[in-house]
Specification:
Layout: E1 5-7, E2 15-16, E3 30-34, E4 53-57, E5 60-65, H1 68-84, E6 85-87, E7 105-120, E8 126-135, E9 142-151, E10 157-163, E11 167-177, E12 182-196, H2 213-216, H3 230-239, H4 248-262, E13 264-265, H5 272-279, E14 281-282, H6 284-297, E15 302-307, E16 310-318, E17 324-330, E18 336-337, E19 348-349, E20 353-355, E21 358-362, E22 368-374, E23 381-389
Parallel strand pairs: 13-14
Antiparallel strand pairs: 1-22, 2-23, 3-5, 4-5, 6-10, 7-12, 7-23, 8-11, 8-22, 9-12, 10-11, 15-16, 15-19, 16-17, 17-18, 20-21
Helix pairs in contact: 3-6, 4-6, 5-6
């Protein structure tokens, strides 16, 4: 029988499965791994559906489901990869940047980020290893290029795949890992990150009356951004009552200030915008989610920006000529509205992703690993790496 393994920790830190990790029964299944922490605690690799059994492990929740679904999904996955993957030699210069912020960029700062994965056999050979991990994407405020790539001889394919135009994955295929052997891929990126200054004049910035298709997704509900909830919708409308004389910039700032004034920062498990509103507490994800929800119910496109161990928001306004621009703001931490001085690399923008391996919408696209066949039934060890290198 073949064993199928999948891993998706859902966090931008380096970690792996412990060698002591023990299944409750013989593994003739597909396996999903979900880890909860402050950065994508609800995330995961939840492309499995149907009747599932759950196990609790030292690192998170383990989901087991029959391999039948995997077999059905395999042709779809292959088709999508063939259409969307790009060779690793592409140097990230062809990405569509965000519009309108070039003239407000200041203080460029370079850094190097190493991203990759290490897969180890803890027993017999591994066959058909497939893995993905998020990598930084190019934006107006972030220039990205590959400066080094290391791969072991076992690695056949290293490619990149764009998901929804706002996040990018490193896609790795490894046909075979020998018994007790190790296969690895490490890619080093040079990232030039700019500060964004707030616009000097905001009177001519408006909430868009017509929203283009690519922006429309940032007006609806996302995981943990409950724009259909009556309480959130009523609050959003109430906050802008009597604001007819205010500029649209001031209206967005009203929503921003409400969140900062009424939700106290408190680190904890992910609970979403509605729970933060009810409890009056939350961390960077809750504060950002509530601000985004209040924007969206008022027709203002807004989305999440993910960086290592933190997130903030962007909102979208258009000028008198109809040209749209995304403006950053940080609800948790130092007040930054329309400006951003964060130097950590942007990993993803958005909060409602669809990836081939996962049928459910993903708030954040996590790391993923699948092994088609692990001879001897021994669990492989995987370490996803994301670390800043010294200059």
């Amino acid at each position: 029988m073949r064993d199928f393994w999948g891993v998706a920790p859902g966090t931008p830190s380096a970690h792996g499965l412990p060698a002591s990790y023990a299944p409750a029964r013989k593994l003739q299944w597909s396996m999903g791994f979900q880890r909860r922490n402050q950065f994508q605690r609800e995330a995961g690799f939840l492309w499995l559906s149907g009747n599932c059994d759950f196990l609790t492990t030292p690192m998170g929740d383990l989901m087991l489901a029959s391999r039948t679904l995997l077999q059905r999904l395999a042709p779809v996955l292959i088709c999508v990869l063939a259409l969307r993957a790009a060779p690793a030699s592409a140097q990230f210069v062809d990405e569509k940047p965000g519009a309108g912020s070039e003239s407000r960029l200041r203080n460029p700062q370079k850094s190097r980020l190493q991203v990759g994965m290490v897969v180890r056999s803890t027993g017999g050979p591994l066959k058909g290893v497939f893995g993905t991990t998020p990598v930084p994407l190019q934006w107006d405020e972030q220039k990205v290029r590959v400066v080094n790539e290391e791969r072991s001889p076992e690695v056949r394919g290293v490619e990149y795949r764009v998901v929804g135009e706002t996040m990018k994955q490193l896609v790795v295929t490894i046909p075979n890992v020998p018994a007790h052997g190790t296969a690895k891929v490490m890619v080093t990126f040079e990232i030039t990150k700019f500060d964004i200054a707030a616009p000097e004049k905001t009177d001519g910035l408006h909430i868009p009356k017509k929203v283009e298709t690519s922006i429309r997704q940032y007006l609806g509900a996302s995981p943990y951004i409950e724009t259909r909830n009556v309480k959130i919708r009523d609050l959003g409308r109430k906050l802008l009552e009597g604001k007819e004389s205010a500029t649209d910039w001031q209206k967005v700032e009203t929503l921003y200030d409400y969140v900062r004034d009424h939700v106290k920062y408190q680190n904890g498990q992910l609970k979403g915008a509605l729970a933060a509103l009810n409890d009056g507490t939350g961390d960077c994800e809750e504060l950002s989610s509530l601000f985004i929800a209040l924007c969206r119910v008022n027709g203002i496109p807004a989305r999440t920006v993910w960086i290592p161990e933190h997130c903030y928001s962007e909102f979208y306004l258009v000028d008198d000529a109809g040209k749209g621009t995304w403006y950053p703001c940080q609800s948790a931490g130092a007040r930054m509205f329309g400006s951003m001085t964060e130097k950590r690399p942007i990993l993803q923008k958005g909060d409602n992703f669809h990836v081939p391996e996962v049928p459910k919408p993903q708030r954040y696209v996590a790391e993923f690993l699948k092994v088609k066949n692990a001879e001897g039934g021994q669990k492989p060890s995987v370490q996803f790496v994301r670390k800043t290198l010294a200059e």
